[in-house]
Amino acid sequence: FGRQKGHTELYRGAEYMVDFLPKVKIEIVVADDIVDTCVETIMQTAQTGKIGDGKIFVFDVARVVRI
Question: In whole angstroms, how far apart are CA 44 and each of 38, 47, 48, 53, 65?
Answer without folding.
Answer: 10, 6, 9, 12, 31
